[in-house]
Amino acid sequence: MKFRTRVVGVTVLLILVVIILALGLLSVVMRFGPSRETRNRAMFDQTSAFKKINAFSIFGMDQRKDRGQLVSKQHSFFRPVIQLAVVICGDDRVNESLNMLKSAIIYTNTSMHFHIFTDPPLMTNFITVLDHWKSMADKFTYTIHEVTFLQEGEKKWRSLFKPCAAQRLFLPTLLHDVDALLYVDTDTLFFRPLEDLWNFFDLMNSSQIAALTPEAEDLSIGWYSRFARHPYYGKFDAPFIGVNSGVMLMNLTRMRDFNWNGHINDYFTKYRLNITWGDQDLINIFFSFYPEKLYVYPCEWNFRPDHCMYRMLCQSAQDNGVSVVHGIRRSFHEKKHPTFSAVYHAMEAFQFGQDLEKDLLLPMLAGLINQSHSSCGKLAHVFTKRLEARIKNRKHL
After folding, report:
1. Which of 133, 191, 182, 193 is nearest to 346 (CA)?
2. Model pTM?
3. Among 54, 210, 269, 345, which has the minimal tally of Cβ within 10 Å of its Cβ?
């Protein structure tokens, strides 16, 4: 009995010692550790960061040298809304731009927000169609902006190259609340999810403000190497000559911080009599002086007739299939480029709710098989490779 009492007493004593030691340790932590204000601030900062990441892309964070590693971690939990911008002036570009937006909706899995810059008479066309599409494919939102040039000389900017094409040069200023953006020309079609293209932001280093594809991979047929009368990207030290501006990833935060629009205005004043391709030439001039600010991604993301009209010049498209088709020089609409026209009209005829294989792939193949006599037609498989892979993956789900 005495032994049992002694054991209980010792046990109680040990418990008291443990409690006293724990209270002492807590006192030390509270004394020398973070204050209540600091702890509360840290909790607030984490909550704010969560909300910011969830609402916007985080590509404007300057402290990230290893941008891709951090973003990849965040992407595993949060998918930023992909911001896509297009500029349309003229009735003949409305259907073309809607076809582009349709292809983005078909292929993309994550949420998107479309920024549509156009003139007031054309706005109703987009509202009617996009509202109808939202009832069938509710993974996008949109904002329609009136074409606006904040700089002096609106007339000269509006008429630069094609009507209002220069609008995209001023997106960092006009979309001051947007961090990162994908700009595309109206005459483009997606054959791969936008998030795959958006992921190139992950590969940009802390100084790069935009990403583009080469204008020419072959020096002997490159326009800039033969005809340009102004500086252009890659003139001296790149394996290709110039960049094409039809599919452009833009880190708007960094562009604003680097005074992008101030530089563009200066280059326009200095070289306006020497440029031919308007906004694209100004972009090339800028990156000729700041090549370290540009990330260059593969030509499969901006595949044009120049890549196949004589011989295949885009190896990444040969290997992986075309990811974005760019119908420059009205290639979607003219008989001179029947392969590009066949791809465009197959996408145009497709409606939401239809079957990808029966109503998109097979009509596209039927149109392409008739063009096997042309240089681009002989490479028809590169146009359908991504679509075929998507259909195959869906069947295995």
Report:
1. 191
2. 0.79
3. 269
- Cα separation of the two ends of the chain: 71
Report how far residue 310's alpha carbon sits from residue 312's, in angstroms, rounded to the nearest whole number.
7
Annotate 22-63 with three-state secondary structure: HHHHHHHHHHHCCCHHHHHHHHHHHHHHHHHHHHCCCCCCCC
**Contact partners, residue 278, CB within 8 Å, separation at least 6:** 160, 161, 162, 165, 166
pLDDT at residue 231, as a whole number: 87
User: CA 302, CA 319: separation in Å to the nearest integer?
Assistant: 15
Q: Which residues contact 62 (CB under 8 A, 6 or more apart)?
A: 206
- Give the C-alpha separation, 166 to 261, whole Å: 12
Give 330's DSSP letter: G
**What are the tokens at 205?**
């280093």
Do 249 and 211 form a contact (C-beta atoms < 8 A)? Answer: yes
Angstrom distance (rounded) from CA 198 to CA 192: 11
Residue type, 249: L
The string of pLDDT tens digits covering residues 71-105 is: 333 333 456 899 999 999 989 999 999 999 999 99
